[in-house]
Design a protein that fits this description.
Elements: H1 4-14, E1 18-22, H2 26-39, E2 43-47, H3 49-55, H4 57-71, E3 75-82, H5 85-94, E4 98-101, H6 108-125, E5 130-134, E6 144-145, H7 158-168, E7 172-174, E8 183-184, H8 185-188, H9 198-208, E9 211-214, H10 222-231, E10 233-238, H11 240-256, H12 263-266, H13 268-285
Parallel strand pairs: 1-2, 1-10, 2-3, 3-4, 4-5, 5-7, 6-8, 7-9, 9-10
This protein binds zinc ion (ZN).
Length: 290
Amino acid sequence: MKTLRETLQQAQSGGFAIGHFNVSDFTLLKAVFSAAHELRLPVVVGASEGERAFFGTQQLAVLVKSLREEFDHPLFLNADHTHSLASALEAARAGFDSVVFDRSALPFEDNIRVTKYAVQQLKSIYPSILMEGEIGDIGTGSEIHKDEPISARSLTSAAEAKEFVEQTGIDILAPAVGNAHGMVRSMVGGTTRKRLNIERIRDIKTSSGAFLTLHGGSGTKDADLRDAISAGINMIHINTELRVAWRRGLDNALAKDEDEVVPYRILPGAVEAAQRVVASRLSLFNQPRA
Ligand SMILES: [Zn+2]
């Protein structure tokens, strides 16, 4: 079985991106795995600190390992948005393939210092773990934002990206290139879309040489995602779109029969709705280069 690093390298040379989908529970894990397995595509399951607290860090790791082994499928596990060294170590110990060590709220120099320390600590114990760092403001909360988010967020510069990667020793960089966590209502309805700064992605790739992830991919124009991959994005995070589908699928399933109380007759509605989103995003990210 290929490692996540090898899969990222393969994506980079092949001109596609690995899909990263967050899960809070087993219905979402089923949805992500089933879509990827049907399409025969590698996939990363992500869980933030909040998602891990609900699912159980160990329990999620065991389930992912069991699916990976039973189906011999390249299914990877990422500790998304981890804010403390203790929780990064807990995920690494449980067997996660990668950790997003996110101290992007700190001033740049402090972010470098604490990220560098975390990379050293984690890699000294788990040498094969991939470490991702984040700079710039891409907002918080993969949910429906009722107010329009601030549109003029500052983008990561190519010089900052180079310095951050060199100083910290991270393997993967999450830059701010027009992306943002969450969606506003008009994006859920599909009348507006996020737009990315493709030139900035290309500059950051050239200057940093690191693998690049795009966080907050939900609600982004499809053509921008394809162009972002061509410009150097290797992994794309989708969370809010999945959560919206899960909720709608669950609502529909519940509305069908108010006397239905059997979970395994209700929950497939949520799995199938989320699975359709994963399949459609994976297909877009893995299109052969035009
Ligand atoms: Zn994120």
